[in-house]
Amino acid sequence: MSEENDKIFQDCFSSAVLERYSTAPRKRMAKRSRKSAPAPTSSTQTGSENTETDPAELAEFIEYLSTEIFSALPSEARTLSYSALQHNPSLAETYSDPLTLSTREALIQSLPFSVADTLTAYTLISPPKTDLLTFLSPVLTSYITTVTNPPPAWHTTRPTACEICGRDWIPLSYHHLIPKAVHAKVLKRGWHEEHMLNKVAWLCRACHSFVHRMASNEELAREWHDIERILEREDVQRWSAWVGSVRWKKR
User: What domain of life (predicted)?
Assistant: First the structure.
């Protein structure tokens, strides 16, 4: 379970990093020693700055830092599962959603100082406005929610790869094509029939986050309720081409 959880954590961490590097320009950074994290870089063009970070260097950076963080988490956090929570009420209380501040602080208290230094050097955090806990809290929440969720009811529809970027070696999550938050409104206004509400697409976490950034829940329900329609968007096609090239090594 720990190896599988490691992959899930890396996916959750990569989603946070990819979101930052896909929306903000980065200047080229000097290489560090072999013992430190590789520097993700971006190229520049005359008169403008290219915001697309080099995929190979970004993948190496994600793999290095997510491994450093995951290996420093408490053992019980590295081996969490739905089954573990069912058989251990204490664990279930500690890792219930939402995670308490004390739980989140306990999860990162053993992280090496190099993690915060690296995230600061690469402008992923900017103390004191954005500190280590602020950056990692959604990553930890996403990771724990994923590993402790019961098996999805739509497991029979699961493909072998993300339906947007096509990456087939990272964990997938199911995206409600008609978001659950607006189901009542959808039925009240007659946008879709009830049997349509549980349609899902299987996406990697990075693509799942991108879809929710590209449109509101109402817009997703009314306009983007089919994966085929989503794939026709130019911004999705650009995102897919870029994120699909971010490939870290398989363990």
Answer: Eukaryota
